[in-house]
Amino acid sequence: MNTLAPSSSPCDQEVVPLRTPEQVRNYFAQSGVSIADWARARGFSVVLTRMVAAGQRKCLRGQSLQIAIALGMKR
Asked: Among 63, 62, 64, which Cα is nearest to 54's?
C-alpha cells in the first residue's frame, strides 16, 4: 500500500495575524528590549528599524522588508 504524506500547502497552515506598528512598539516597551539592541543583534540598520516600527516605511523590498518580516509585520 502506497501512502502519501499530507501536503503542506499554504491553505493547510494556521494563519498568524500580522502585527501593527502599535503592537510592535508595545512589544518593545513591555519586553524591555530596545529597538536599537534588537536591530543590532540581527544586523539591521537602527534608523531603518525605528522607521519600520513606526509605520513610516512601505517595506516593499530590501532591508525594510526584511525588518518588517522579522517583526511580524509582513509575510
From this structure: 64
For CA atoms 55, 57, 59, 65, the dihedral sign is negative
- Say if CB 28 and CB 35 are below 8 A apart: yes
In tens, the pLDDT along 5-46 reads: 454 555 555 667 899 999 999 999 999 999 999 999 999 999
What whole-number distance in Å separates Cα of residue 2 and Cα of residue 69? 39
The three cell numbers of residue 30 are 513591555
CB atoms within 10 A of CB 9: 7
Cβ proximity of 37 and 46 under 8 Å: no
